[in-house]
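Continuing from yesterday's entry. The apo prediction looked reasonable, so today I'm repeating it with nicotinamide-adenine-dinucleotide included to see how the binding region is handled. Same sequence as before; SMILES copied from the compound registry.
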Amino acid sequence: MINVIGLGYIGLPTALMMASHGLEVVGTDYNTDLVDTLNSGRTTFKEDGLDELFAEALKAGIKFTTEYVRTDMYIISVPTPYDKFSKKVDPGYVVAAVKDVLKVCPPDATLVIESTVSPGTIDKHVRPVVEAWSAETGNKINLVHAPERIIPGNMVYELLHNNRTIGADDKAVGEEVKSRYASFCQGEIVVTDIRTAEMTKVVENTFRAVNIAFANELARICRHDGMDVYEIIRICNMHPRVNILQPGPGVGGHCISVDPWFLVGDYPSIAKVIDESMKTNDSQPSFVLNRIHEIMRENGITDYARVGLYGLTYKENVDDIRESPTLQLLEAQERHLAKPLKVFDPLVGKKVVESQVMDYDEFLKDTDMVVIMVKHDHIKASWDRLKGKVVLDCHNICPLEHVYHI
Ligand SMILES: NC(=O)c1ccc[n+]([C@@H]2O[C@H](COP(=O)([O-])OP(=O)(O)OC[C@H]3O[C@@H](n4cnc5c(N)ncnc54)[C@H](O)[C@@H]3O)[C@@H](O)[C@H]2O)c1
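Holo prediction written out below.
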């Protein structure tokens, strides 16, 4: 039986996927509301295919509880934020979960850390806890790191098809864990050591952050001298070995905007490109805010109440708002003491910021300027609604005439 600890964006789909593929699974989360919701037959966030997977897992007998259970394998998928000051990973949630597992687990249990951690975190923060427990009880625990790569919006498909990495001290234990993941994963599963697995996960997200920062920097250079960044990228990408990403309003979520900081925190005198890239991405919402002011001036718009931000989530077609560029932009605006811009997001059903409007008609009413922060399918389905308004399109998706870009 597998006890999945932490039933958030990663733990829940993983637990459901394993249960629906024949493994006996108990999902544990210390958030009682979350566990109550799952036990009442409802999922806790929106994601393509998640409800169907949930129904299959329930049929297969998955259980949800706030208790840790005694079993031979644990998967820990709890948050790993970064310390805003030191930039290093904050291993507090992982260590706390490991300590709780050690209170109930039998000898020789396998403890799989799925949470993203910087290289060396398991050796530095988890291993000493496990070794102290071993010294006290005379028992052994198998440590494994199995980082997750799935992208919100396509989680169910990616769980089934992505390649995976498993890092273990002991190759045989790694192979055993691989066989459990292989019950549902059709991708290739590489077994390596723990530090390599830790580093690969962080490097993958860093690669993406650096490439996004490059596109964002190009947008700023082009804006500075009146060049069309989209046309320039389009032509550059016709080169057989060039593949530049598109610029955007910033980076959010709990991966690309967080994990690369771990390397900056751990290797401050070496990780220079990464540091600058993260600063570029982090300041992109302020760059958009400056563009909003420029365009307001150009169009004689003086009242902030007549400007609306479309989109509050950190990416399209998901309901996750964590670290979203829109939230970052509102924060930057607050620092300048301006009246907050109104916001609308069709996927965010409850009010999370004061200036949020819950209805699209109401959002568009008395709005002279719309800023497209997120490219939800919802907005693409009704471009006519924006006719006659000033539009700042941060994603170059709006087909209307006279649209502004970043
Ligand atoms: N969200 C993503 O897209 C994504 C993708 C890949 C990897 N990751 C990584 O996966 C990990 C989990 O991320 P997430 O987005 O699922 O986080 P989340 O905040 O959505 O979920 C974490 C859950 O863990 C629970 N929890 C925390 N400590 C606990 C404990 N000691 N015992 C029981 N429950 C506990 C919380 O209540 C919460 O429900 C992080 O390390 C993250 O970096 C996330």
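Comparison notes:
- The chain has two domains: 2-192, 204-405.
- The chain has 14 helices and 13 strands.
Will overlay with the apo model tomorrow.
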